[in-house]
Amino acid sequence: MTTASSTLAASAARATVASRRASAPSSRRAPRLATARPASRRVSSSANLAPRARAISDTDVAQDSEALPETRASDDEIPACVGTATKEEFMRWMTTQQALPAQKLELVVDLPEGRGLVATEEVRRGESLLDIPESTLITVERAIAESNLGPAHANLQEWSVLAAFLAEQALAIDAGADGGRFATYVRALPRRTGGVLDWPEEDVKELLAGSPSQRAAMERQASVDAAIDEIRASHPQLTPGALRWAFDVLFSRLIRLPNRGGALALVPWADMLNHRPGCDAYIDDTGGVVCLSPDRRYKPGEQVYASYGPRPSSELLISYGFAPNVGENPDDEFEVVLGIDPNDRHADAKADALRRIGLSPVEAFPLKLNGYPKQLLQYASFALCDPDDPRELPGLAEKALIGNRAVGGLLGAITKGKRGTQGEVLGGVAGEIAVRELLADITSDALSKYPNTLEKDREIAASDPTKPAGKQAKKKKSFLAELRGPSEEELKKFPDADAWVGVFPEPVRQTQRSVAAARVRVSERRILAKTDSEVRLQLRKLKASQMTGGN
To answer: Domains along the chain?
Structure first.
């Protein structure tokens, strides 16, 4: 029987690597299937390619009959103590109770990203920073040991163990208890992170319309809802609002420690580091302390960055609540999911042939600005093949995809922006044309699902996410039309945004969500448009070759 905890832990979409921020758990439901090719299109070739591939559609959510999750928790559902510790209290706790050694970094709370660590003196590339003692870490084992939730707590999945612990500590402080050794840290955590768990359902529906990230956002919310229900089945004293806040914090701050077998941990002080695309500096826990080796030199006053791992902007938005400027993230991608058509007369035999070489009848492939993996075309050609004798399928699978089994079938791991060098597209020139027509259909269909014009999305993406829409609307009327900004009267009520507490006026939060979502949409559309253009150019050349006597 599959539990909510095991579902929450099944983050198969992206493996966590060593010291990178922990991959967000997901509860990927069975994807919806959409026919990717007209049934009348048939190709004659040595492999008898036929329209039997399906593109898995993640972008039809707006028309889905499934209900979106409930709206985010209101502010009074978040434990009152969260955000009440000052920066000075937090630093005293780190230096006195947690024995943090002297640092070359200081905590600054008014950066464009909010909180962050800034160099106070020159930092050399490769030198050891942070040096956080092991006793400061909140691991799963430590959370169980410090908790008063009893034996049932230890039976939860690791993400749920940590979420229950944070919620327990915060609620205990609200009830007048001292909250234990991590009370100051809990009180210093932000009330909101900007991640998708904090989004009103109408924003998930509207701002992510057309993007595969809408499905991912819905799955994130659904998986957390299921985990909360499972936790409260044995710990009903933990409120839904406290647990939702706790999961929101975990998604934005949790780290995997490489020398502890990839164990999850909250690491106070290290979790103040912000991510920068292209950064190659990762948290390490060698030698009994948690440290960071910068990948470049920093001057005094410069913010020091770490990498959360090679994540596309859509993942950064869903987990962390931000998206880099368009063009800044080399890890941006648009994921295409292909599968064997269940109506294919050889569907079962094809699935078996793929499993024999360690692959699945449903596989994901990344489209990037610099191209797409050759394995996408090879896989599609096998999915499309239509031999008279199904006994030929194992050989065709090996011919198309040989070599992938050498990595245990983790096709996603070998196709992240890399071009394959083994295997081939089945069916000669006709096969090359068929798979590119399939890919052209997919990209054209995906581009048609975005509701805004590209020009409008670019305008929103280029706007200042720190200012409410009403202020920017004086210069950009169309921007006001897109964002639900405040009136002039409402603008007078805005206090300064408080990046330390993590509470911004709702119009500011709305603008931040809108700008970040637009950056994701533009990044995806750039990739789709470039792929579509390249594929259609290749098609013209292949068809010209075919007409002049090519195979």
So the answer is: 29-65+330-450 (3.90.1420), 75-309 (3.90.1410.10), 454-524 (no CATH)
